[in-house]
Specification:
The chain is α/β, with parallel strands linked by helices and about 230 residues long. The protein has helices at about 45-55, 75-85, 100-115, 120-130, 145-160, 175-195, 205-210; strands at about 5-15, 20-30, 35-40, 60-65, 70, 85-90, 165-170, 195-200, 215-220, 220-225. It is built from seven helices and ten strands. Strands 6-7-8-3-9-10 form a six-stranded mixed β-sheet, sandwiched between helices. The chain has a four-stranded antiparallel β-sheet with strand order 2-1-4-5. Helix 3 packs parallel to helix 5. The radius of gyration is 17 Å and the shape is globular. Bound molecules: adenosine-5'-diphosphate (ADP) and magnesium ion (MG). Adenosine-5'-diphosphate binds next to strand 1, strand 2 and helix 1.
Amino acid sequence: MSLIELKGVDKTYLMGETKVHALKNVQLEVDEQSFTAFVGPSGSGKTTLLNLIGCLDKPSNGSVFVNRVKVNDFSNKEAALFRGKNIGFIFQTFNLLPVLTVYENVEYPLFMVQNVPEKKRDERVMKYLDAVGMTDQKDKYPSEISGGQNQRAAVARALVTDPKLVLADEPTANLDHENAFKIIELMKQMQRDLGTTFIFSTHDPKIVKEAKIIFNLEDGKIINKEILSNGN
Ligand code: ADP
Ligand code: MG
């Protein structure tokens, strides 16, 4: 079985009296250690799909399996535990906590979900700050560094718990092209070095080409899957 499997997944939101069909009968498998993109215009269902895989939301119909576990039966508490152990998130707006330094932001998940002892925590934080090239910025606050550097720190924060899976919702949308490519390259490098599975969403055609597997979404449906042979 794949790392992720969705079977007959529908997601309907109620907006007042109107039903919004955000996902319609989605079937999907994502292999372990892959570098996968969800691609489609705004409103096509990318965020909804990532939220279901990330156990942040539940489908209206169908099943979501992550690491062979049916995650849509989880209680909120079970979902939070599973997320903490298995999944890292990178968001479009970086979402670093402004009152914490870069170091403290990266350290935060180790307090929150994994209760790692102090010495080990420091080793882990420094390892990932080094991996993303942010060691010399570690004592700065998010407002004191660039967007690209914020996003590098967000990558370190997503990886510090050694998750099997990293979900990145339009991680390049607030970056210029140079920094966008750098972040994608960094995620790819982490996928190669650590064997982490990455799924990111985007609607930027230039960024899309960096993925190895692409699922194209339109109007809540997966319209096709592409496998790119981009030389990596
Ligand atoms: P994308 O990330 O591709 O822009 P979304 O997954 O955010 O797409 O949205 C898919 C559809 O679901 C859109 O029509 C959007 O308006 C709707 N939608 C998303 N979240 C909600 C919500 N919480 N309540 C109502 N409608 C929503
Ligand atoms: Mg979105």
